Amino acid sequence: MSDIFISYARSTEAQAKQFAEALRALGYGVWRDDEIPANRAYADVIAERLTTAKAVVVIWSAEAVKSQWVRSEAERARAEDKLVQLSVDGARLPMPFEQTQCADLSGWAGEATPGWKQVVDAIANLASPSRPQNDPPRKAARKLSICVLPFANISDDPQQEYFSDGISEDIITDLSRVSALAIASRNSAFAYKGKSTPIGQVAGDLGVSHIVEGSVRKVGNRVRITAQLIEAASDTHVWAQRWDRDLDDIFALQDEISQAIVAALKIRLLPNERRAMERRGTANVEAYDIYLLARLYLDSGSRGDSQREKAVVRLTRRAVELDPQYARAWALLSYGLSSIPEESRGGDSDGLAEAERALALDPDCAEAHAARANALAFTDKLEAGVAEAELALKLDPESYDANRVAGRLFYYVRRFRDAADCFTTVANQAQADFSQYGMIASCYVALGDRDAAKDASRACLERVEKILAHDRINSHAMAYAADALAVLGEGDRAREWMRRAILIDPENWLMRYNFSCALGVNLNDADGAIELLRPVMEGSATRLLISAATDPDLDPIREDPRFQQMLAVAKARIAAHKPAA
Predict the structure, then answer these.
(1) Alpha-carbon distance 287 to 319, whole Å?
(2) Hey, what's the torsion of the CAs at 572, 577, 579, 581, to 10 degrees?
(3) What angle do CA 384, 385, 386 make, to 5 degrees?
(4) Is 0.85 surpassed by the pTM of this model?
(5) In the structure, what pLDDT confidence band is assigned to residue 134 with cuts at 50, 70 and 90?
């Protein structure tokens, strides 16, 4: 394994190469992300290399400061006490990195550059030969810190996994309210879902002192939950328990589990923390279960299939009937409504009123702001939607819904770096979501970074293959596979996937739209792109027109008179059918 890991933004790739060559000349093994094997997932290789590196050199620039990937790598290096920082353009470092020494290497002129000795000395201190070669540095665990691994679904029905995931998320949320306890984020914890990673490795990777793991078995109206708290350093059980309860007791049971963990760690809860842990979005167990099921439908299935969105709407309508004060259910109802194309919506709402209802019930709910952002964007108020999405991210930077919506809206307004960061957050949280890597690839194609686009496309294909193994007619997955193949230069295979998908689902306008993008930007087939896009523009709704108006994947045909005429006719058609204000 290499001694040094180099983290940088794409705009500073030339400097990264120079620094790597200079360090290799000093005898160090140096790794950066141009060396990822074609058969490995990008995120897995990055995590592995970060773990084994003795020093992590972060090249700060204005772009790197905004990059969630660079900041994530820097945060891990800082926590593991192997961070070496340098700046190439004087950009102001984000907190808490501005509190750590950073060498100024602006105007690189080889080893004579002021600050280079500072970098070399820092690396020598970390990567000296005296450090054990086969004992990579681990992240130092804070005194009381914890990771709640996703509880395993051991129900007879594998579809009940949505319920076990919901239990895990709620326990993470509860424990995050305890000021004396540091807790790994949902994003970090769910990265280990479905993996047999040793407890010691998880603790070392995340820098936590304790691990919680457990299982959920749900049968009819009964639920059995087991949970155990493990001290990572000694690999011993601090506490373990099993509960058999009626489903009606699930909220009290969640409180009991969270408070038992706190008690086992000998933490004394403050009164406001206890109240916060006991506060739920709903007290209605059936509404909660239906909400979790609706979210599962939204996160799976084939996008562009209006039946999926309609199922989400039916489920969340039932949830808010059961509990009209359930803000998150109103937010999800809004998202489902605004995702249904106008031609399939009938007399249904566009989702804006439902988002407003969610915000009235809980003004600080990130999901509600994300739902409002989505509804605004698809009612032709894109700038207002972007502002609302930024507010959602500010309230909860790790929110799955906020990042999913913000990524799309940032993409529409061509903020590709910000969009890629949001899509990456969603991809890390949803291990089966292939579309996020497809969007990351599109962002990097727009930015002119083909290598990064190919990395994301390989990750997309890897996830698509898992989906198609048990859902062979998922046209949404097939569409992203074709797009990924096009990015990777496999044009014949991409066209074959397109032909097959269109035969399976000929009226999926979103799928056809994605194929048009692939033909236009990656396969240089303007005629094919326009012919595939024609029925989309003739029969589709506002949401695809918003995308078509700005999508960089359509830039190769944007000046084509045929495209311009189709877009103008479609806009006129939509405007003619809009109700008067």
Answers:
(1) 4
(2) 0
(3) 90
(4) no
(5) very low
